Amino acid sequence: MTPSAASPRPLRADARQNADALLVAARTVFERSGVDAPAREVAAEAGVGVGTLYRHFPTRADLVAAVFTTEIDATAAAAEELLRRLPPGEALDEWVARFTQFVATKQGLAAALRSGDPAFDALPTYLENALGPALRALIEAAAADGEVRPDVDPMDLLQAIGDLSHRAPSPDGSPNPMVRLLVDGLRVRR
What does each C-alpha distance from 174 to 18, 131, 168, 177 come to in angstroms? Predict the structure, then answer.
């Protein structure tokens, strides 16, 4: 039986390691140099040849989209982990700080998303579908705990934080002051 395009063969262990190393390297290089950094820089950071990079990610758009989706997934998963570990209000604050950092470190991504490359078409919806429910869970938990207002729309808040986060976070890694002000405005006054 031959594998179909819908269900490709799983990667060998060494190939999976190379793909994972390339994603980590690309994230590091993109944070340092932006998404237009040379492919050689990404391959060198991963410790592989340029041919290996192109075997896994035939175009720059494929690599950018893969890095972006893995970071979206990690940011979404952080919500559940933070809720297990922290009180709901603190979990919300920590997640907002993480999301702010996520947006602030995507140099050139907004331009790439507007480039018209079909590899990016699904990314805005992917982001909303992953991060919207994560933020909703945080808001609902914090509202149930009496920490924040219950009438906050997660998608509106996600958009507002994203818009404010294009400015880099503070040197200590905390969200910029306007994001902090926005989140403080959600608090229930006692």
Answer: 33, 20, 10, 9
Residue-wise pLDDT tens digits, 60-100: 889 999 998 999 999 999 999 999 999 999 999 999 989 98
Burial of 59 (0-12, 13-18, 19+ CB in 10 A): exposed
Question: Which among 78, 80, 69, 66 has a CA at the least distance from the CA of 23?
Answer: 66
Q: For position 137, which CATH number holds?
A: 1.10.357.10
> pTM (2 decimals)?
0.79
Same domain, yes or no, for 161 and 100?
A: yes
Q: Do 98 and 48 have their domain in common?
A: no
Exposed/middle/buried for residue 157 (C-beta within 10 Å: 0-12, 13-18, 19+):
buried
Same domain, 49 and 84: no
Tell me the C-alpha distance between 22 and 28, whole Å: 10
**SS3 sequence, 105-138?**
CCCCHHHHHCCCCHHHCCHHHHHHHHHHHHHHHH
**Structural domain of 43:** 12-58
More confident of the two residues 52 and 12: 52
pLDDT of residue 190: 61
Structural domain includes residue 147: yes
Query: Chain-centre distance of CA 66, in angstroms?
Result: 11
